[in-house]
Amino acid sequence: MPSPLDKDALAAVAHHIDTVMELRRNAETAARTFTEPSGEVREYSELSFHYAVTREAGSRKQSYQRVFFDAQPMDYYSGRAQGMRMASEVVDFFRAHKSAKLPLTEIIRQAFERCENSHGNMQKAEVANVASGFMEVIETLIAVGSRQLNPAWLTAQINRNEELQVTWSEREAERKAALAARLRAGREAAKARRLAQGKAGAA
Prior knowledge:
- The chain is α+β, with helices and mostly antiparallel strands.
- Helix content is 65%, strand content 7%.
- It contains five helices and four strands, in the order H-E-E-E-E-H-H-H-H.
- A four-stranded antiparallel beta sheet has the order 1-2-3-4.
- Helix 2 packs across helix 4.
- The longest helix has 52 residues, at 151-202.
- It is extended.
- The chain starts with 6 loop residues before the first helix and ends with a helix.
């Protein structure tokens, strides 16, 4: 039976694992990083329209600005088709990953922020046309998911958050009461010191 590793050996193994993982992360980041013709450097996620700008065009300074919904103005139907292709990337992501998450809230928020209107425009090329196709697929995913969702899970989540609110409110009230007590004690101590100094001066 092999003897257990001592502390130094365990530390060496941990260091080796950390080094390997860091090299792997750096390699994955490098594989996702591209320099655009403009000179802008982008680090892409698994979605083609979601990335981080790590250096702006014409600048040598590092930056970090996340783009969640990169889309160009397009005609109505071609824009909707593009939006649906973008949504298909979301579908592919969740099919490929069991536990990984996407910043869907930010993706949807930025999609609407970039929209000139919420329905698209058949007379003009707009980002809204892309967003409308994207959201049609997302709405379908929600509808399909709703039919598969276990109602007991949702009820448990509602109850848990209501319980957490009660617990948080109680702790917050205790924190504020303790802070008020400390401030009151500090004021009283300061007042006592001033009185003592005044008596000492009078004497």
